[in-house]
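Operator note (shift B, R.M.): manual run for Outer membrane immunogenic protein requested after the automated queue skipped it. Running by hand, logging everything below so the morning shift can see what happened. Input copied straight from the record, untouched. If output looks odd, do not overwrite the archive copy; leave it for review.
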Amino acid sequence: MLKRLASALALVAAPALAADLPSVKAPPAPPPLLTTYNWTGLYAGLDLGGVWGSAKFSTPGFATTQDGDSVLGGAFIGYNRQYGAFVVGLEGDVQGLGADKTSAGLRFRQNLLASVNGRVGYAFDRVLIYAIGGVAFTDSRFDIGATRVDGEETGYDVGGGVEYAFLPNWTVRAEYRYYDFGKTNRTITTGGAAFPTPWSVTKTDNTFRAGVAYKFSEPDSAPVVAKY
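Run finished. Output pasted below as returned.
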């Protein structure tokens, strides 16, 4: 009888004793690590696109603008340095094209574009949005009647684009740029005129291109702890 009474008391007291014991919880799981792409490094690539050129011919009492377009393609090389989410760099490129437009005895031709530019961008991990601009060069040639006029070969370019790192060492980009080579002034004799006539030609270009690049540095990524 006493044994049965003791067993019953033990069954009743066991839940109460268990409730008084300190609870043991599993340690929290560590926060996940996010990987931020590192844009620092030397890179080189190829691009292809189009150019829309414009040459404005003017002389006293007369002005006309000729527009010509062409396929554009070439190569570029540069170096980026990343500071937090900001990316700065230097890039040079050479582009071949074949713009050629003739109208009313006036003609412009253009076979090359080149530039040395600075780049400033903001990185969203593998996506880089950037602005670009610097010194530009070209080999424009203008014909006014039978007279050849070589254009000013130095100007500037400005633009912007977006670049995406689809593999650790490979990126693709899309970019727009505007080129301005200023005004070329010449005094020439045309059309049997008795006296030389002043002429000026203003040359600009708009380009859009897509490219792919290889980054030579190691695909070093910086781990970032996610915060909640």
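Quick read of the result: Helices lie at 2-20. Confidence is low (pLDDT under 50) at residues 222-226.
Leaving this for review. - R.M.
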